[in-house]
Amino acid sequence: MSDEKIVCRCMDVTVDDIMKAINEGYKDIESIKRVTGLGRGPCQGKTCVPIAIGIIARATEKHPDEVGYITPRPPVKPVFFEMLAEEDSE
Amino acid sequence: MKEKAELVIIGGGVSGLGTAYQLAKRGFTDIIVIERDYFGSGATGRCGGGIRQQFSEEYNIILARESVRMFERMSEELGQDIGFRQGGYLILAHTDEEAEDLRKNVNLQNSLDVPSRYMEPEGALDIVPELNIDGLSAAAYCPTDGVAQPFLMIKAYVDKLKEMGVELHDHTEVLDIEVENGEIRKVITDKGEIKTNMVLNAAGAWSRDIAKMVGVELPNKPYRHEIMATEHMKPWLKPMVISFHNGVYFSQSHDGEIVGGIGDPDEPSSYNIKSSLEFLERFTSVVVRYIPIMRKVKVMRQWAGLYDVTPDARPILGPVEELPGFIQAHGYSGHGFMIHPMVTKLLAEYIIDGKTSIDIEPLNLRRYTSGETIQEKNVVG
């Protein structure tokens, strides 16, 4: 049964993509993030990671805690280079 | 887990998986690969994916050149896209001395069939029109250098190795290695024991700990290197841009993010891989100086990884004198991903044939006691 529902809107990852990764033997969120690309877009997984953890937990019959969580990457929101750069060195 | 194997590989990054693949390709499949975390969780998955042939030292140039030839065929060979893109490497020099080094290196690279070229700063504008060349003394460009996607590379190896019948275990930790009468007998993991006489130590920055299990001291030291990725953009930046002046590097990956980092000469050796705001400030300051339009680009995420650094910034490859079944494949000092195809091919040759098509003796651990080391100077990040 195919499920094209989008889980990660930034990187266009569907339920099917996640199920495929699980069937290939990846059972933790860190691996599945790397294999599918989910959580690597502008929102940095704020939307999709909890949903993906739920899907993985159900499919692998694990408690969500056992699926793990991704290491949150700074910054919390994307930041312009000009807000970080010091430009007095010219 | 199998009870015994001809070879146990410790480390599921490109060094370990690459060697497993090169061996399996030649029919040597009685291998177990052990990875403590997820595949590519060490330096491989944290690196910028750069592939450069512009080194200062002949041996590294040859390893990189042969590796590029292998990268060119890899997506097809493994049956999966590895995100390899040859946009070249543009190296920027600031001082006359750096310009002279670039010229010397280009001559050496050309003599070894690497098509790099030296140019005045204006020449760099043909490659990156957005570049601000104020204060630059020269540039060098090699069009066959490029980038690949580390996670696609890892996935391609993992899938191919499974298909070839090689046993892979992630989330499995090596606890000890048993040695008897100068020979390896057993690898003990938290998921079971494996009888073997041969171990490949491909544990990156943790290779020291593995070596200690058999009483071998390694000179490697871990150093944090920070890196970041921007939001996704349409392709506009063709090459990887780097400078040895400040240790910066950045390039656009095949999916449109600009990925880059900058070295910190004051970084102490440690296993710290936390991200810092100071890094973002330093990195963005250097980048907007080179490419002013980058002011309007957003940093999307940052992370860090460990360089596994040796005293001469060159890898440690091959057997250890006192324990010949203990083979080393680490110490890449920040340029492991780019030379791993040829390095792993040579390691496979050593394991199967007992000899290699390019002599790996200069990279044996014993060079640090015999005093025969040659320093690689061209290291960034």
Give structural notes.
The complex is a heterodimer of chains A (90) and B (381). Chain A contains five helices and three strands; from the N terminus they run ββααααβα. By secondary structure, chain A is mainly alpha-helical. A two-stranded antiparallel sheet of chain A has the order 1-2. Chain B is built from ten helices and 19 strands. In chain B, strands 5-6-4-14-15-16-13-17 form an eight-stranded mixed beta sheet, with helices on both faces. In chain B, a hairpin with a 2-residue loop joins strand 18 and strand 19 (323-330). The longest helix of chain B is centred in the N-terminal third of the chain and has 21 residues, at 58-78. In chain B, 52% of the residues are buried. Strand 3 (79-80) of chain A pairs antiparallel with strand 17 (298-309) of chain B, so a sheet runs across the interface.
Evaluate the radius of gyration of chain A: 16 Å
Shape of chain A: elongated
Average predicted local confidence, pLDDT of chain A = 91
Low-confidence stretches of chain B: none
Note the run of SSEs of chain B as H and E: EHEHEHEHEHEEHEEEEEHEEEEHEEEHH
Strand content of chain A: 5-15%
User: Biggest interface, and residues per chain?
Assistant: A-B, 27 and 34 residues
Q: H/E order of the elements of chain A?
A: EEHHHHEH
Brief sketch in words of this structure:
The complex is a heterodimer of chains A (90) and B (381). Chain A is mostly helical.
